[in-house]
Design a protein that fits this description.
There is one protein chain. By secondary structure, the chain is mainly alpha-helical. It contains three helices and two strands; from the N terminus they run ααββα. It has helices at about 5-20, 25-85, 110-115; strands spanning about 95-100, 105. It has a two-stranded antiparallel sheet. A hairpin with a 5-residue loop joins strand 1 and strand 2. The radius of gyration is 32 Å and the shape is extended.
Length: about 120
């Protein structure tokens, strides 16, 4: 019993520290949150108002570009799929380099540069 009494006293004091000191403190904390929420709402509303015309212009531009993009995908889609099948994993290549004569080369990484395979994967 002598060991339990200090433990209960310590828990009681700790629980008092977790409670607000007064109702005024709790009210100020609640008001602080609502002021922060109101400020965030006003900030986001201002951004929306400022960005509205730009977003409308972007929407119009995408509507104008949609037929051309659809045609591009229809024509180039199969060719790009074939190319990607031949290339495989793009992480196995270095970034493209432009040579002094204007040629562009893309070098394949060596197995040491690629590093170990993730756990559970097998190189084919």
């Amino acid at each position: 019993m002598k060991h339990i009494r200090p433990l209960i006293t310590a828990l009681f004091i700790a629980s008092l520290g977790a409670l607000p000191l007064s109702a005024q403190d709790a009210e100020q904390e609640e008001q602080g949150r609502s002021l922060m929420e109101e400020g965030a709402r006003l900030f986001l509303e201002g951004i929306r108002r400022e960005m509205g015309p730009a977003l409308e212009d972007l929407r119009g531009m995408t509507e104008d570009m949609e037929p051309a993009l659809r045609q591009f995908v229809e024509e180039m889609g199969p060719a790009l799929s074939d190319l990607m099948a031949k290339v495989g994993d793009l992480s196995a290549y270095h970034a493209p380099e432009v040579l002094p004569n204007g040629d562009i080369i893309i070098r394949r990484k060596t197995p040491q540069e690629i590093g170990p395979l993730p756990e559970g994967e097998i190189e084919l």
